[in-house]
């Protein structure tokens, strides 16, 4: 499972570094960066909490568990 921090959205609240310190750090300007992009199964709960707690939704799963958001729309039928 993989995660991503959007550097444009991040506002430096640092909640992610508190709930999943193994996976996130702050750069020199105080914005979050992913330390570990590939998340082990045992770390999924902490990273999922970081995703949910981010006030600006700057963290997202690239390939990982659903975060409780809306279901993806089905592809339109092929013509």
Quick take:
By secondary structure, the chain is an alpha+beta fold. The protein contains 2 helices and 4 strands; from the N terminus they run βαββαβ.
Major sheet details: 2 strands, antiparallel
SSE string: EHEEHE
How much of the polypeptide forms β-strand, as a percent range? 15-25%
Question: What is the arithmetic mean of pLDDT?
Answer: 85
Number of strands: 4
Strands in their spatial order, largest beta sheet: 1-4
> Considering DSSP H and I runs of 4 or more, what fraction of the residues is helical?
10-25%
Question: How would you sum up this structure, described in words?
Answer:
This protein is α+β, with helices and mostly antiparallel strands and 79 residues long. The protein has a single domain, classed as Alpha-Beta Plaits (2-Layer Sandwich), CATH 3.30.70.20. It has two helices and four strands. The protein has helices at 15-19, 44-53; strands at residues 2-5, 24-26, 32-34, 59-63. The protein has a two-stranded antiparallel ribbon with strand order 1-4. A two-stranded antiparallel ribbon has the order 2-3. It starts with a strand and ends in a 16-residue tail after the last strand. Mean pLDDT is 85; it is low at 67-72.
Task: Give the SSE layout.
Elements lengths: L1 E4 L9 H5 L4 E3 L5 E3 L9 H10 L5 E5 L16
Antiparallel strand pairs: 1-4, 2-3
């Amino acid at each position: 499972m993989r995660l991503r921090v959007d550097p444009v959205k991040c506002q430096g609240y640092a909640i992610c570094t508190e709930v999943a310190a193994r996976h996130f750090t702050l750069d020199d300007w105080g914005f979050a960066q992913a330390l570990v992009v590939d998340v082990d199964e045992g770390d999924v709960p902490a990273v999922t909490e970081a995703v949910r707690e981010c006030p600006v939704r700057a963290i997202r799963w690239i390939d990982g568990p659903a975060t409780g958001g809306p279901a993806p729309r089905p592809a339109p039928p092929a013509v």
